[in-house]
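Example (one chain per record):
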Amino acid sequence: TGKDLAEQCIKVLEFMVTREAGLIFKAGGLPAILSFISDNQAATHKDILHSAMAVVSKLCTKCEPTDEALPECVVTLSMLLDHPDTQVSDGALRCFASLSDRFTRKNIDPAPIGEHGLVENLLERLTAALPNSYSRNSPSVSRAQNPSSTAPSEGTVSMVISLLCVDTTA
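Predicted structure:
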């Protein structure tokens, strides 16, 4: 079926991107795979979704601040930050860390990557990492009031902090 073929293509892309990420990126791989994830996430098996996010993470390391596809990619990645599967949302966070790094290395203001709720999401993640004694005293914290939310891993917290600390005055 078409779904099986798409899943096989994702697995092949996951293998190919380990060897030729630059070529796959230049061929439009990042917007294509993000479109696949965005359009098919509900009907896609978890392992395929994780493989697709691995491809996206690798391709984001090739993205330049001047790439034409960047605004569309930022919109989709911002949406994926709120995905219920933590492997997907953490993958989107890693993508933003890569994009932030690319902006910083080029001395370009990374503001465009934060235009669709990135900073708010990062602050929510930090708030979720706070011990309950701190978060209960803050009336403006939405996640802390939700007992079902899980605390992020230490790696996620360090990524969040590094993204929040990017110098935008350069």
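Caption: The two ends are 51 Å apart (CA to CA).
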